[in-house]
Specification:
Blueprint: H1 16-42, H2 48-56, E1 61-63, H3 86-100, E2 105-109, H4 118-127, E3 131-136, H5 160-180, E4 184-187, E5 192-193, H6 201-216, E6 224-228, E7 238-239, H7 244-254, E8 258-263, H8 273-282, E9 286-291, H9 308-324, E10 331-334, H10 343-362, H11 366-374, H12 378-389, H13 394-403, H14 410-417, H15 419-426
Parallel strand pairs: 1-2, 2-3, 3-4, 4-6, 6-8, 8-9, 9-10
Antiparallel strand pairs: 5-7
The chain binds manganese (II) ion (MN).
Amino acid sequence: MRQILEEPLADKPFLPEQIADHNARHIAALTDEYEALGRALGRRGIDIDGVKAKVSGFSLALPTWATGRGGTRFAKFPIPGEPTNIHEKLADCAVVQQLSRAAPRVSLHFPWDGASDYAALREEAETYGLGFDAVNSNTFQDQPGAEHSYRSGSLGAADAAVRAQAIRHNIDCIEIGKTLGSKALTVWVGDGSNFPGQQDFTRALDRYIEATSEIYSRLPDDWQLLLEHKMFEPAFYSTIISDWGSSLMAAQELGPKAKCLVDLGHHAPNVNIEQIVARLHRVGRLGGFHFNDSKYGDDDLDSGSINPHQLFLVFNELAEAEARVPGPTPAYMIDQSHNVTDPIESLLSSTESIVSAFAKAALIDRDALHDAQDRDDPMMAFQALRRAYRVDVSAIVAMARMEAGGAIDVLEFYRDSGWRARKAQERKPVGLGAGIV
Ligand SMILES: [Mn+2]
């Protein structure tokens, strides 16, 4: 076992020299693997340095809620050293960013991430080299002291006073986001029904769109409103924004700043999510992406842990769309609930999976793919994808990360650092609390 690293400087979790020492032990093997892969790709006419440059340009956001143990609907088993407030969550996100160099933004959720001074919070994040991604509102659970309950819905509730409270909360989130430097508000509501007849589908959607248009009218010009659909839960019979069709319908009625956000876990099993990506991009409404994986539904498992091929196919569609109509990159974010792992380790591992899927999609010979599609040759079209998917791109991803100042083996560095054990001494214990967040 290697030595536990020294106590770091206050403004960065780790000293650059600590990462350099780690990299010095791995650089010879990495260079050898990178050069061998470069020769193999070169024989196919692919320039490995060009792919690495694309990988260097890829980044995603981390959600603060994924820095703690989320648990399941049934229970939550915290670990010592979990973050207990927004400042500690930022520090853990800084660990992921400093080691992976692919996660420079953090997404906040209110009121969970409330702070007394958001300008100071922005400066605190900047000392870590972090910025802020979309802010997220929460009108799916009641808060202490709230005047009205969301038990029967929020933006789509039948009670106008409940809708007004939900609108106010979203406007408050926009105001906080302006101070933080965010450029988007993500809205997911659990509104819906649990019994046939409980709710009029049409009037409920009308109320939701009317309420959301009030929020939309308060958006700064350079902001986006990201609408996140989800098939079910907590409403198990009908959900107001249950699918991409409802989401698109709402976005188109609201206006050009409203876009759809696709969360990989928010569809029925086996749904062709990559086709949804292509559809939404075609109409210019693909606003964002939440990465996770699932076996059954909204499991929030680690990205690429169950179906890495689907992740690759999603990035294939994104690359295809980008080549056809260049435009702003969708807001990429991890959205996971960690039940049995150290959340930082899951975020590091998932970041690696997502960047790898992006890198593999960048290897696809698009001319060969299009040619096979146009000749109606399904096998060769499939092989164009398969040739890229089979490549182990680890050396490209690690080289890009190292050149940006990150660690070659992120998990090894993190474990050797003793970060969690140190935080277990410094941070107060987390309560047992409820399950999934
Ligand atoms: Mn999500």
